[in-house]
Specification:
Blueprint (H helix, E strand, L loop, with lengths): L1 H32 L5 E15 L2 E14 L9 E6 L3 E14 L2 E6 L4 E4 L5 E4 L2 E6 L8 E10 L8 E2 L6 E10 L3 E8 L7 E7 L2 E11 L17 E11 L2 E4 L4 H9 L11 H12 L4 H15 L1 E2 L1 E3 L10 H7 L1 E2 L1 H14 L5 E5 L19 E7 L5 E4 L19 E5 L5 E5 L9 E11 L2 E10 L2 H10 L4 H12 L6 E9 L8 E10 L3 E3 L2 E4 L21 E2 L4 E10 L4 E5 L4 E3 L4 E10 L2 E10 L3 E2 L4 H15 L3 E5 L2
Parallel strand pairs: 1-11, 7-18, 17-19, 25-32
Antiparallel strand pairs: 1-2, 2-9, 3-8, 4-5, 4-9, 6-8, 10-15, 11-14, 12-15, 13-14, 15-16, 20-21, 20-23, 21-22, 23-24, 25-26, 26-28, 27-28, 29-30, 30-38, 31-37, 32-36, 33-38, 34-35, 35-36
Helix pairs in contact: 4-6, 5-6
């Protein structure tokens, strides 16, 4: 008996000692690999099961996470959230903290899970939700663990998997477990280094697709980065079809399948039309001379009269409201506004088409990923008699007719012609010359400051983005924007007065007139004055740290700025030095600066442009070379010398 107790005690001691050693080794290993990180995923795993049951496909995923905390400052990760929605139901949530105490772990379970509505500031209503909870005793050396199951209502919404996350990961695994009858498409993107390993095997009547990775670093947050799917290693997957006893069932085998599913959402809309909507269309027709005038009138009417409100609830996230309903309520989301435009143009006898499109947040193309992953937006399309396509996005209030919203530039649009026909068209990227900001100032020296008057004009996307800033209820907000827009010289710039015209006229440039002064801007040394006429030094020394930056840089739109400055030469001074003219015709950024002496004044003209939407890491060195040339030119000053 004594021997048995002693043997049991010995085994228990060995088990505790083994657990202690394992924890110590794990902590040391991960601390050495990720010394600067507050915590690390020991494991991050998800297994998606696609199981054929009778004639349908059941889809659910089991998620588990195990985080080891490496610093006392990791309390920021003491709160957790698990997200769900109408299409993705969450259940069986289990969470706990493993508290390291006297060479072993003690479990502290989470018992309080609160369900919350996940309201985004830009969405009036959606059906997404999350369960929130707090892990107890989160501190250095402890571990927090989470498990839950989510059930997907429709296999078309398989989300794929992003391998990188906000913490580094010791081991990452994503597994799809399917019935053999399922034809699955899969592709890993953004993994040039081959970090993700793949294997495929059969076991227990199922087919397994397994992607794993080890020691993945944390995803770094960097300014102006695009959506993570542009650069992070991630998996895109979807079910093409599956076999049942009744035959083959197509899911998303190709773009035809996706389009026919989408078309089913709009084919029965707008069967009847309200007298109010007919009256609106007739009035627009009466005021129009050409078909294009009708389209412009309808587009502007929807922009001016329908309030954009994002609304997502179940299939309402995919199916537009009837045009009569939207016209009556005077609000709607992107689908509602697009459908209203299509219906109004049809009433006017003009062909128009429902169009599905992804914003620039999504890097995919319909021709590559024919799934709901590819789009998140809807617009209308009009094709003129000359073959020109007009992409009508009324959610962008200040966008003029003929200009697509900036967030869909360069994206593929799925244009629905009829039940069996569609087109994929690429929305053009708008040339920099179309998005022009011009600024003209006359300045003179007054004591130790510069005083002047100026005029600015905004066109294209410069006007659109400016329109949102100028469309503010508070005058102080408008003044702050105008100060940012026309501010120049230094932080001693002061806006004395300003006026704004044409901000609500989409067809004409917004114009800003202003008066200003800049204190202590020029230098006086002996009998010489040094004045830098580069009052705006856009991107001065804006070098990219090539050694550190990992992600691309995104720009809202390409643009050009034209600046003109007239300096009145003081009567008792003359020109001693004019800088040489300078020019750089870069493919990403460029400028031209010209100086000219005229009786009693100096004229300075500068053109500056940015010519990219997405700046890739391979272009960073070329960018830096251009910025070096630009910054050197910015340093040049004119010299005025006192007359003898």
């Amino acid at each position: 008996m004594t021997r048995t107790i002693f043997a049991s005690f010995t085994i228990a001691v060995c088990v505790v000692a083994s657990a202690s050693a394992q924890n110590s080794d794990l902590y040391k290993s991960l601390k050495e690999k990720f010394p600067d990180d507050p915590a690390v995923f020991v494991t991050r795993e998800e297994t998606v099961t696609l199981q054929l049951k009778e004639d349908s496909l059941l889809v659910f995923s089991d998620v588990s996470e195990d985080i080891l905390h490496l610093k006392e400052q990791s309390e920021v990760y003491s709160s957790g959230r698990v997200y769900g929605s109408h299409f993705n139901q969450v259940k069986d949530i289990k969470a706990k903290t493993l508290v390291w105490d006297r060479s072993r772990y003690k479990e502290m379970n989470v018992s309080d899970f609160k369900k919350n509505s996940d309201r985004d500031a830009g969405v009036f209503y959606d059906d997404s939700y999350y369960y929130s909870f707090n892990y107890p005793s989160v501190s250095n050396g402890n571990r927090t663990q989470l498990q839950y199951r989510s059930t997907l209502k429709d296999v078309k919404f398989l989300p794929g998997f992003i391998f990188s996350t906000y913490l580094p990961q010791g081991k990452t695994a994503y597994v799809i477990k399917t019935s053999p009858q399922v034809d699955l498409f899969y592709e890993v993107l953004n993994d040039a280094a081959g970090l993700i390993k793949f294997r495929k095997y059969d076991k227990g009547g199922f087919r397994y697709y397994e992607w794993t990775a080890t020691n993945l670093p944390a995803r770094r947050s960097e300014d102006s980065s695009p959506s993570v799917r542009y650069y992070a290693p991630h998996l895109v997957t979807y079910v093409k079809s599956y076999e049942t006893k009744k035959g083959k069932v197509n899911v998303l085998g190709n773009l035809d399948d996706l389009y026919h599913w989408y078309y089913s959402f709009v084919k029965d809309l707008n069967a009847d039309t309200s007298p109010e909507l007919v009256a609106v269309v007739e009035k627009i027709k009466a005021q129009s001379k050409t078909e294009k005038d009708v389209v412009r009138g309808v587009f502007y009417w929807v922009q001016d009269n329908i309030q954009y409100i994002a609304f997502e609830e179940g299939m309402r996230g995919l199916i537009p409201h009837h045009a009569n309903y939207v016209c009556d309520k005077r609000y709607g989301d992107c689908k509602d506004m697009a459908n209203l435009i299509v219906n109004m143009l049809h009433l006017a006898g003009v062909k128009a088409y429902h169009t599905w499109i992804g914003t620039r947040d999504l890097p995919y193309k319909y021709t590559q990923v024919p799934t709901p992953l590819v789009d998140n937006h809807m617009i209308a399309t009009y094709v003129a008699a000359d073959g020109q396509y007009y992409f009508l996005d009324a959610t962008s209030d200040h966008t003029p007719f003929g200009l697509p919203s900036s967030m869909i530039q360069g994206k593929e649009a799925l244009v629905g012609i009829d039940k069996d026909h569609y087109e994929v068209k690429v929305v053009p990227e708008i040339a920099k010359e179309k998005n022009l900001t011009s600024d003209s100032v006359s300045i003179k020296l007054d004591g130790n400051q510069i005083v002047g008057t100026g005029k600015s004009a905004l066109q294209g996307y410069a006007k659109v983005f400016g329109g949102y800033e100028l469309d503010r209820a508070e005058k102080d907000d408008v003044r702050r924007y105008v100060t940012r827009l026309v501010g120049k010289g230094s932080n001693k710039f002061y806006l004395d007065d300003y006026s704004v015209t044409n901000q609500n006229d989409r067809e004409r440039p917004t114009r800003v007139g202003y008066k200003f002064r800049i204190g202590d801007y020029f230098q006086k040394i002996s009998d010489e004055l040094y004045i830098n006429l580069n009052l705006n030094k856009d991107y001065y020394n804006a070098f990219i740290n090539v050694a550190l930056r990992q992600t691309p840089k995104e720009n809202d739109y390409k643009y050009e700025k034209l600046e003109f400055c007239e300096l009145a030469i003081p009567a008792d001074y003359e020109v001693e030095y004019l800088p040489p003219n300078a020019k750089l015709d870069g493919d990403l950024v460029g400028f031209e600066a010209r100086y000219e002496k005229q009786p009693g004044k100096i004229l300075f003209t500068k053109t500056f442009y940015i010519n990219y939407l997405l700046l890739q890491p391979a272009q960073f060195e070329r960018w830096n070379e251009a910025i070096k040339t630009l910054s050197e030119a910015y340093k040049e000053s004119i010299i005025l010398k006192k007359k003898l």
